[in-house]
Every structure is written in structure tokens, then in C-alpha cells.
Amino acid sequence: MRGAVQGVGFRPFVWRLAHALSLAGWVRNDIAGVFIELEGEDGALREFRRALDEAPPPLARIREILENPAPVTKEPGFTIRPSEDAGARTVLVLPDVATCPACLAEVLDPKDRRHLYPFANCTNCGPRFTIVTDLPYDRPATTMAAFTLCGECRAEYEDPRDRRFHAQPIACPACGPHLEAWSPSGDVLARRHEALLAAADALRAGAVVAVKGLGGFHLMCDARSADAVAALRRRKRREEKPLALMVRDVAAARALAEVTDESEALLAGPEAPIVLLPRRADAGVASNVAPGRPELGLMLPATPLHHLLLRETRFPVVATSGNRSEEPIATDEREALVRLAGMADLFLVHDRALARHVDDSVARVVAGAPRLLRRARGWAPLPVPVREELPVILGVGAHMKTAVALSVGRQVFLSQHVGDLETPEALDAFERVIADFQRLYAVEPAAVAHDLHPGYASTVFAKKLAEARGLPAVAVQHHHAHLAACLAENEADGPALGVTWDGTGLGTDGTIWGGEFLLGDASGFTRVAHLRPFRLLGGDAAVKEPRRIALAILLELLGEGALGREDLECVRSFSRSEREVLAKMASSGLNAPVTTSAGRLFDAVASLLGIAQKSSFEGQSAMALEAAAFEAWGEVAPGAAQPLAGQIRLVISSDGSAILDWEPLLSYLLGKSSPGVSSSLLAAEFHAALADGIAAAAAHVGAPRVALTGGCFQNKLLTELAAARLRAAGFEVLLHGAVPPNDGGIGLGQVLVAAERLKHLHRGD
Ligand SMILES: [Zn+2]
Ligand SMILES: [Zn+2]
Fold first, then answer.
1. What is the bridge-based pairing of β-strands 295-299 and 274-278?
2. Out of 295, 350, 480, 506, which residue is the most buried by the measure of CB atoms under 10 Å away?
């Protein structure tokens, strides 16, 4: 049996089932999954198989069951045999699983021996990926190996009838890890439950507390206190980006945000992700938690430690990654003292080592289903199954929101979120994750796939690695990787039209792409349409200052007259001489590269409508534009299938390729934009017009299957409008789910494109 079948209570399940049906034989874990030998009557064997298919253990995900006849041995009884570690490592390492209701009930029960114990877990919950050091998954191959089981835990561990039979991280107050509260200099201030109480006291007093959790440190503070939140922001150097919150339960989440059935299932699921939810007007959190955002990122406790802490505080806490700005999350308490120095007033730590960092996942319900924006706890390192056996290929991702991918057999394993490769710490984490994956699955890559952009740190690393090992390095165009990832995740064949819209990706013509319509699949693509290009005045400076892009577009619409439009904030905010310099840049093209980026068009419109002139983080203006559009969405027909503006124009050139021209749309917005008109309404019309443009391009291309991928499809409104328009016109629409539409999914696409490329290489064409 292959799939997620280890560490989920599979063997005891099989043991109990075999006993109930009077079947003889044995079960064991091996490196490829679970192996069962059964002997008995036909009817009982059929019944066994039916139970396996219809009611497997809740966390198990069976991918494949292979059956073979075996000679009759007449040996009585059914046993669980020790694990076998020979063969190819295709077993799935399970993600960490949030505390199950049974374990939480024990922790809260004063009569239970695990009362108030922050590390309780069982076969259905607890740490997995963050404690595994080797395969197969058994206690000696976890960071729990350091803790010797007490008599009572051993009895539970060895009893197939017990909920903790072979629960590898099993622990109790007598034999497991414990909490300590440390001062910033590492002095022990309190131990065990007293340490937890000290952390709760510190939070209550407005302090910032670093808490060692499941996959790394969180920085926490009282979410109701603007001063505490401001201190945390200042120390973490995080100015405006929204901060996530942890609340004790679904009821507490409902007090802060609108929770639908779908989002409740996601929030309370075993993955315990941060879920973006529409905030309530009366939400009792400080305004600097998520300034100007219509949504709050909420998560529930994932471990007994967090349950106990949140029950002590009785108020929502900010729970943000324990790191400085975009660095990777800290995992070790000694390292945390250094890396989080000056940030936390108190450290709540414990002596269970983390084998690797895993951040909180971030998800959003879009078009009626959960979509991941950051794939980490609860999902990593689950693979994406693919149809054919692939050579071992490492896909290193791009530059932002990096995650790596590794193909083994018919699976592509996706790493946890690593982050932006902008600091030495991030690069270290990136290299560690790559080494970790190869070691865990005991494979050497046959090729390394990387982005076409030569300047990305991931590209430089991939080329070096390939050269050192004498392997082919395969360059994959950024948006092609997005398309391949979306097809793979949906287990769909091409050719499909990939609407790949994002911020930045190097195109095959050497310009910056980002508003692309690519027709193809992993084996190749044709760029059948794209957004009309515009200039980024000042290059990278334009990413931080959307007003530069707005000015470039105004210059195209109005010529030199744009410089005098004092009525527009995007013009007014520049001095006369700055405008002259920028206009020269635009006409000469010097330090003003052209781009077709849809993300940058969002920035430009946010600026033009006076919503945002500068961005302190990637995607900020686009998020503000989406937020503004949502505000107006109540005023127009929700989910309206008919165009609101219909102002976008598709220009077909003689070779059949098309350009989606933004000029009529932006002229329209400019014409209507005045102090008396709601910029929200115009923002909504902009979204609707882009969805129309996508539908028009799809109709022009005619491919029945359309994939919406790239960072722009983190935008709920754009995604829902475009999908609705396309479906109404009869197209099959592919969206991302468990693989992020942003660059977190690039590694997967790179692996699939490289696999196709290698086939041709081997055939010699
Ligand atoms: Zn449990
Ligand atoms: Zn114990």
C-alpha cells in the first residue's frame, strides 16, 4: 500500500481489522509504504479490502494498493512486524497534524495524567514532518528518540487497541519534553506549567513573547493592544504588512471575522492554517494589526501548548513568524536567543528539537474552495502525484516565496515555504531544505531545473550544483512553469490556455513578462497573447512606487499633457523636475524597461485611482486595489455574469497573436475618476473588465481548457470573476488548490518542464 500510510495508525487499524475478521498474517512498514500479508477465507479477504477502501484511518491517504497471491502458510494469528528499510523511498512523510479533540480533552481533564501537558499527541495528531530525521518513520528516526518512554507510555505504545499504539511522538509529563521560560539572556525564569503561566502574564502585560511551537518560533503579543503591536512591528521591522492572529477556538474567530462553513472547515482542519477572513466591523483587535485590510488572518491553536496558552490569555494574540522581516523562521532556542535578540521580552521554549522549520500555512477560500497562498504546515511535504515515472529532478523555484520540488518515481515532493532569497539566512535555509530532501528520500538528482532569470540566487545555486555534479541544468521560463504546475496539480493534460498573470518573470524575448496567455503544456508553449507593454520608470524603483508606473501609462495616454495633471495624486506627488526626468526616461527608454506584467498594471491603477502611491512590500498596492473593489462589490450585482465595463480591447495582429490593450479601460477610469466618484466602484470595474479581457482572449484562442495561475490569482475577486466568465462561456477552468498560484508553485512546474526537456535530450532532438 502506497501513500500517506505511516504515522497515521495504519498498522493498528490493520491489526484490529484482521483480528475482527479472523484473518492470519502480518503487517509492517517499509520504505515504500505498508506491506500486509493476509491468509483466510475469500469472503473475509473481500470484507478486509472493502473496509480498507471505504473506511481507512482518518489521516491516511492511500494512493495505490497492489495485490499479489502468496502461498498458503497455515500459520495462525496476525502480528505487527518490525519495519523494513530496504528499497526505494517512496513512502510519504506526513505533515504535522493539529491536536485532535480526544487529546485536547485529556489535556483539559484534571483527572488525566496528561492534564496541562503541552506535548500530548496520539496516532491521529501531533508532530510528524518537524520531528522526522530519517525513514521509515519510527521513534528512533525522530527527534523524540532522546526521550525514553516511561512504563505507562510504553504500555500505550505497544497496545494495538490503544489510541497511541505506535504513535511515535508519544509523551507524558513523566517522560516527555517540558517547557521553560527564559529571559532574553537565556536565564531560566520558570519551568513546566509555571513557564506557560509566565508567558501568559507577559502577554497580558503587553510584552512580546517568543514561543517555540511546532515548526519554529512565533513572536506573540496581545492583539488588542496597539502599543504591544507597534512594539512588535518596530522590533521585527515590519511596517505595514498584516500580522496573523491566533484565537482559542472557532467561537473566538467568529467574534473577529465572518466565518462561513467552508472557512470554518479550513480553520478547524488538521492543518490549522492561517485563514484570511472578512473582518467584522466590531472586531476587538488593534487597528495596526492589519492596517487598511478588509480581512484578518486567523488561525486556531495547532498544539496543546497553544491551546493552553490561549485559554490562559483569553484574548486573541498576534502570532507572527519568529524572524526579522523576510528571513526564515527560527527553530532552535539557543539560535533564537541570538536571532530574536531585541525582539522578544520573554522566550517560552522546550527541549523537543525541531528537525526542520515549517511555517504556518496561509489559505483563503476562493471560488468556493480552499486555496493555499503559502504552503507549509499541514501540507508540506505531501507530494503531487504525476502520471508517469519521472527521473529524479530538483526544481529550485524562483526568487520570491521560494519552495523547492523533487521528483521521486510518480510523485513530486514539494518542500515547505522557504521565503524570499534576499538574505544570507534565507539562502542557508534554501540550501538546507534541498540537502534535507535529498537525504530524506535518499536520492541524487539526475537534473536540476531553475528559472530562466540568470540573476536569481536560486538560478546561481542550481547552475553551481549541476556543474559540481556533472548534471544537466535546465532553464525553465517562469510563466511556463506556472502553467505546468497548474496542469500537474489538476492532473490535467494540455494543451491548455495558461492565463499566467503575476508580478515579474523573465520572458524568452529578454523582456519582463507577467500578463501572459501561454498555450501549451509541460512540453512547450506558444505565447498566444499578452497585455500591452508599458514602461517601468526607474526599473526596480517602480515596483516600490506604483506612481511611477501610473505616470508612464498617463504619458502614453495623454502625451506630455500628463505632466500637468495636478488633479491626480500620482502626478501631484512628484515635483515638476521629477516629472521632467521621468518623462525623459519614458521617451528614451533609458532605465525604463518595458513589461507586460499584470501585477504592475494593478499597481498602476491603484495609483491612478489614488488608492496607493507607494508599496512597502510586494503586492501591497494590488491588495489595496482588491480591498477597494470588494468594498464596492455590494453595490454592483455580486458575481455578476455580465460585463460591468467591457472597456478592454483585444487587438489581433496579422500572425494571429493578440494583445490585450488596457488603453480604453484606463482612459475610461481616468475619465470617470473625480473626487465625486467612488474609487472603490472604479476598482471593481477594473477587476470586471480584466475578467472580460481574459474571457475574450480565451474565446479568441479557442482552447477548451483554461488554467488561471500566477500571483495575480491570489486575488479572490479577479479569480472568481474570471472563472465565472470563462465557465459561462463553456470553458473548463483549472485553478490552484493545495499548490499556491504564486511562486511557491514554480518548483513543481520546473520539474515537469525539465522532465519533458530531458526526454528530447535523450532522444537527441
Ligand atoms: Zn490526538
Ligand atoms: Zn510517559
1. antiparallel
2. 480
Interval between CA 102 and ligand 1 midpoint (Å): 6
Do 381-479+744-763 and 531-734 have matching folds? yes
Taking the centre of ligand 1 as the mean of its atom positions, its distance from the CA of residue 176, in whole angstroms, is 15
Homologous superfamily of 531-734 in CATH?
A: ATPase, nucleotide binding domain (3.30.420.40)
Closest ligand relative to 175 C-alpha: 2
Ligand nearest to the CA of 104: 1
pTM of the model: 0.92
Q: How many CB atoms lie within 10 A of CB 263?
A: 22
Q: How far is the CA of 164 from the centre of ligand 2 (A)?
A: 11
- Distance between Cα 117 and ligand 2 center (Å): 11
Instruction: Give the environment of ion ligand 1: residues with CB less than 5 A.
Output: 100, 103, 122, 124-125
- State the fold for domain 381-479+744-763: Nucleotidyltransferase; domain 5 (3.30.420)
* Ligand located closest to 102 CA: 1
Structural domain spans, the chain: 2-80, 179-359, 381-479+744-763, 531-734
C-alpha to C-alpha distance for 567 and 295, rounded to whole angstroms = 31
Dist CA 211 CA 136 (whole Å): 30
Cα(320) to ligand 1 centroid in Å equals 25
Instruction: Give tens-digit pLDDT for 16-49.
Output: 999 999 999 999 888 778 899 999 999 999 999 9
**723 is written with which cell numbers?**
472563472
**Cα separations (Å) of 384 from 3, 119, 414?**
11, 30, 8
Ligand nearest to the CA of 107: 1
Q: In whole angstroms, give the CA distance from residue 442 to residue 439.
A: 5
Q: At what angle do helices 679-701 and 598-608 cross, to 10 degrees?
A: 150
CATH code for the domain defined by 179-359: 3.90.870.40
